[in-house]
Amino acid sequence: MTAPAPEARGDVTGRLHDRVAIVTGAGSLGPGWGNGKAASVLFARAGARVFAVDRRADAAEQTAGIVRAEGGECEPFTADVSRPDGVAALVEACLRRYGRVDVLLNNVGVGVVAGIEDTEPRHWDLVHRINLTSAYLTTRAVVPHMREQGGGAIVNVSSVASLGATGDRLTAYGVSKAGLNHLTRAVAAEHAATGVRCNAVVVGLVDTPTVYAGQPDADPAVLRARRARRCPTGAMGDAWDVAHAALFLASEEARYVTGALLVVDGGLSLRFGAAV
Ligand SMILES: NC(=O)c1ccc[n+]([C@@H]2O[C@H](COP(=O)([O-])OP(=O)(O)OC[C@H]3O[C@@H](n4cnc5c(N)ncnc54)[C@H](O)[C@@H]3O)[C@@H](O)[C@H]2O)c1
């Protein structure tokens, strides 16, 4: 069961009026709020018609159910966005359903805890396929449609692990997210004149179900407290912090913002001297 959706932090009505938004990884790995699930609900509250993609049908359907229960518009779709056929199918289905695509939130991500010597080639490939290849595939597929429509907004969900050594032994993950940052800036530079903007939310320690799903034997309260202690604010962020940043970058309020890496980490990366 997912806890009831919290109220938005401020009125978001109309900020994505009539926009069509594809969200990848729109479910969450367990009970509670993942970043893509919160963003889907928030985008719908802001007026978007949300195309909620997840490789697990139940996860996408759950998100769509929450949006619809609030009176919003959401179409669930099952696809693996790390594969070209999955991406082709989802873009075709979104265009068939809504006739356009204005926003793309590239939110899928996976981490493997390992340093350089114990990162197996299969883990390296998996992490890069899910975190980076997926965004390359979806971006490549939607850009022609956005350009034809006169513009669009792509938002990538990155991580502070891309900015410096966090001490988490997330070598492949950090490298893949650094690649995602570069993809963000490369697409922004290439498309500035076409009206297609591309930005990233660079996320710190956030309290999402994945954190606990990866360590089923650990006490969630202990894990939560350990992560909170690492945060300069004394608390982790949550999925709504990420969703609100993504909403800003997706909306017309950010119409002159492209190629930005918006750090949402409560100051965490300041501790390892990262510069954006
Ligand atoms: N939770 C954190 O502390 C944190 C910190 C920094 C960055 N992030 C980033 O935020 C994003 C979302 O993280 P989360 O913890 O909210 O998500 P999550 O792990 O709960 O996953 C979201 C959804 O993505 C789906 N998914 C995974 N691979 C997929 C694929 N190949 N195709 C389609 N769907 C797929 C999963 O089924 C899941 O429902 C990720 O990119 C992650 O790297 C999270």
From TrEMBL:
<protein>
    <submittedName>
        <fullName>NAD(P)-dependent dehydrogenase (Short-subunit alcohol dehydrogenase family)</fullName>
    </submittedName>
</protein>
<dbReference type="InterPro" id="IPR020904">
    <property type="entry name" value="Sc_DH/Rdtase_CS"/>
</dbReference>
<keyword id="KW-0560">Oxidoreductase</keyword>
<dbReference type="InterPro" id="IPR036291">
    <property type="entry name" value="NAD(P)-bd_dom_sf"/>
</dbReference>
<dbReference type="InterPro" id="IPR051122">
    <property type="entry name" value="SDR_DHRS6-like"/>
</dbReference>
<dbReference type="InterPro" id="IPR002347">
    <property type="entry name" value="SDR_fam"/>
</dbReference>
<dbReference type="Pfam" id="PF13561">
    <property type="entry name" value="adh_short_C2"/>
</dbReference>
<comment type="similarity">
    <text>Belongs to the short-chain dehydrogenases/reductases (SDR) family.</text>
</comment>
